[in-house]
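Quick start: load a record and inspect it. Here is Pseudouridine synthase:
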Amino acid sequence: MNDAGEARGPAKIVETKLVAEDEADIRLDRWFKRHYPQVGHGVLQKLLRTGQVRVDGKRADANTRLITGQTVRIPPLPDVAPAPTEGHEAAAKPAKPLFSDKEVAALRACVLYRDADVIVLDKPAGMAVQGGTGQAKHLDAMLDLLKFDAPGRPKLVHRLDKDTSGCLVLARNAFAATRLTESFRGRDARKIYWAITVGVPEPHQGRIDLSIGKEMAAGGERMMVDERNGQRAQSYYTVLEHAHRKAAFVALWPRTGRTHQLRVHMNAIGTPILGDGKYAGQKAFIDGADMKRQMHLHARRIIIPHPRGGTIDVTAPLPEHMKGAWDYFGFSANLKEDPFLALD
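Running the structure step on this input writes:
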């Protein structure tokens, strides 16, 4: 209670967020929009002008380009809600997504690994990691549901595409967030993906070195091969099985962490990932195969140094829509070895 006997609301706190591996080189205002889409441009400009939003403790401008591992200071943000109608003076309240008990239980059932510092989640295909325009429900908004016995919410240290399933690492405290981010930035994390490609890559094992940049397309922003102005991107692949020349079961290892890297690279060599209509259009689909037009890219395994020593090694099972494709093509889903050990 305050001196007037009125109840106070919960105290707001200053947050610090780490710039993830695949957020490097984006403008601060665009990064802010990804994380806090409810805050308008004018409000952000005021926060920057008054020094309330800072990067690595220093004042920054909206067009500041971010670097992986930097920290962004987030002050208590103003509540955002529709303006009250005339004659109503009700206090504005933030619009928060509501999650059903079923959704909460389903998210917690996705936890593959948990200790005092780290959670590894089996992210479902179709779940966005962070919000955007018109995207009310996303993992970032649900992280409070994964606190379990910790005092604070877990923190994102990397991302997966909305339509990619599999291993996603969360830090349960600031110490773990710093160490895990360093591991992703320093390429100490090994991320092995499974995919089905339309067609069979030749040769059956190889490395793709193609720089990636952004372009504006009719459907919005997308990535493309850009050897002149793009960022260096390197991916390894190996064909584990194939169904004649129609499709292949491929293991992928992105040595860099560019946005949509594996999708752009596999399309660039003429064997797009099954279901990836964004980058390959109709070429991403196979006649006669009822795959529900979902993308067949799965973050199968993550091997990363534990923040306090040792190694975390977690494998995510294939999601149901990908199991159907494996059955259709007669591929084996029991392979457990790391196909890239010889490249260490």
